[in-house]
């Protein structure tokens, strides 16, 4: 279970904004964060990952305090055991596919998991290739597999599929659902694609101007009638 | 007759200086690239000083500092039995200071060109700063490392003013090629001076051609995620 209670002042293209989030995510849940660009979605993930320090608040994962402003606790990203997948893949260009996965191995961890993940994500034939020679979908599978090597407790996905075509998106959504189930992960997916939110999650937080406007099942809270209008605006 | 020892001394000085610059430059450029303190401009300006100062100014102050008459020189001589004026080690220290910006600036821009998301990804994979430096940053800034190496090496080979001030003109110790050329011209041996000069000219030209080739390749094979 993750308890999140945080605030942070952000400076973006639309000026100053106060990001504020107060929620609880249960173990094994797959929650999406949906909202227009600049709503603070990525900042939430970065704060959970430890890459951005909240101004105030508390982040607690399974009883372990990751951040507590009142006690001055801010655990480094290295100590949080999370998996983070960026939209731009962020593969290490100097390493092969296999090298990228092996880099994520922890001290004393068996390399068997690398082979298992290469098999799961159907990357065995590409294992000796460098990232620059791969397609977008292949790169994102490598990024996902690499994030799982550490057997993270929490998987954070920052619009991981938005740069891909719809066929590849659909295929990778299936992969994500499969690994979420198989690895018994708690997953937070940032997305601005309504169909993706509908397919992937049973709970969505709708973030607007740094605040959670709605929290519930996608079918209940998403602006399904007006979503085309919203997309045009954002 | 062409002497080979000044060539040997010049190459020895350039190589030693470049190796020391690598050891000093990798952590210093890292600090300058990633530090966000507003006081960073001070060390940045100090590192860049040799670009604007006449070598004789730097040489003069180093000569004063290294002199056994003064505190630093006296301390080094009495505690470490080390004399830096008119010796090869003194010349190396002076060259390191003089060529510092030629190592630091390519490395600093090399660090800055590696996407931040790669560094952050490595942190989320549990890696410490040392691992990020050796396995993510340095391997992805090879062109900057090569540029820093070549520029520092070539700049040291072309030194004259600071060599003369700190090293003097001592055969087998500090008499490098640029000093020999100066001597030959003073003695009106223009033919000899021409031979030494043309070797230095061709060498420097080849060095610059290789720097530009590396830079072109760096622009073409920029980071692809």
Short description:
The complex is a heterodimer of chains A (234) and B (225). With 234 residues, chain A is an alpha/beta fold.
Description:
The complex is a heterodimer of chains A (234) and B (225). By secondary structure, chain A is α/β, with parallel strands linked by helices. Helices cover 32% and strands 29% of the residues of chain A. In chain A, the strands form 2 sheets. Chain A has a 6-stranded mixed β-sheet, with helices on both faces. In chain A, a hairpin with a 2-residue loop joins strand 10 and strand 11. Chain A is globular, with a radius of gyration of 18 Å. Chain A starts with a strand and ends with a helix. The model of chain A has no long low-confidence stretch (mean pLDDT 90). Chain B is mostly helical. Helix content of chain B is 76%, strand content 0%. Chain B has 11 helices and no strands. In chain B, helix 3 (55-66) runs parallel beside helix 9 (161-167), helix 5 packs across helix 9 (161-167) and helix 6 crosses helix 7 (129-137). The radius of gyration of chain B is 20 Å and the shape is globular. The model of chain B has no long low-confidence stretch (mean pLDDT 90). The chains are: A alpha/beta (234), B mainly alpha (225).
């Amino acid at each position: 279970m993750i308890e999140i209670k945080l605030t942070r002042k952000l400076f973006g293209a639309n000026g100053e904004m106060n990001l504020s989030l107060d929620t609880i995510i249960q173990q094994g849940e797959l929650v999406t964060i949906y909202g227009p660009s600049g709503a603070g979605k990525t900042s939430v993930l970065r704060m959970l990952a430890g890459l951005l320090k909240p101004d105030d608040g508390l982040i607690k994962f399974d009883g372990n305090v990751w951040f507590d402003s009142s006690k001055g606790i801010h655990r480094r990203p290295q100590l949080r055991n999370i998996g983070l997948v960026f939209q731009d893949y962020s593969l290490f260009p100097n390493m092969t596919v296999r090298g990228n996965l092996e880099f994520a191995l922890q001290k004393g961890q068996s390399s068997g998991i690398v082979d298992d993940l290469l098999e799961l994500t159907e990357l065995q034939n590409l294992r000796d290739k460098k990232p620059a020679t791969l397609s977008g979908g292949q790169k994102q599978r490598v990024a996902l597999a690499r994030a799982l090597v550490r057997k993270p407790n929490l998987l954070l996905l920052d619009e991981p599929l938005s740069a891909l075509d719809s066929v590849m998106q659909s295929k990778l959504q299936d992969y994500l659902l499969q690994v979420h189930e198989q690895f018994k992960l708690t997953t937070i997916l940032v997305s601005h694609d309504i169909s993706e939110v509908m397919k992937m999650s049973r709970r969505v937080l709708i973030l607007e101007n740094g605040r959670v406007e709605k929290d519930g099942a996608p079918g209940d809270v998403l602006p399904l009638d007006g979503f085309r209008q919203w997309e045009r605006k954002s | 007759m062409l002497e080979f020892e000044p060539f040997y001394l010049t190459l020895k000085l350039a190589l030693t200086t470049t190796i020391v610059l690598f050891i000093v430059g990798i952590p210093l450029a890292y600090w300058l690239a990633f530090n966000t303190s507003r006081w960073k401009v001070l060390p940045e300006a100090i590192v860049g000083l040799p670009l604007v100062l006449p070598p004789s100014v730097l040489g003069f102050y180093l000569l004063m500092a290294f002199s056994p008459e003064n505190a630093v020189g006296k301390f080094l001589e009495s505690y470490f039995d080390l004399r830096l004026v008119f010796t090869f080690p003194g010349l190396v220290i002076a060259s390191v200071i003089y060529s510092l910006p030629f190592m630091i600036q390519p490395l600093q821009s090399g660090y800055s060109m590696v996407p931040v998301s790669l560094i952050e990804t490595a942190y989320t994979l549990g890696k410490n700063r040392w691992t990020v430096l050796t396995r993510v940053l340095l391997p992805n800034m090879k062109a900057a490392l090569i540029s820093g190496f070549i520029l520092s090496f070539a700049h040291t080979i072309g030194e004259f003013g600071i060599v003369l001030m700190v090293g003097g003109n001592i055969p087998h110790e500090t008499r490098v090629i640029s000093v020999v050329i100066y001597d030959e011209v003073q003695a009106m041996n223009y033919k000899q001076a021409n031979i030494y000069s043309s070797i230095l000219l061709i060498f420097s030209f080849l060095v610059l051609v290789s720097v530009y080739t590396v830079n072109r390749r760096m622009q073409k094979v920029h980071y692809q995620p």
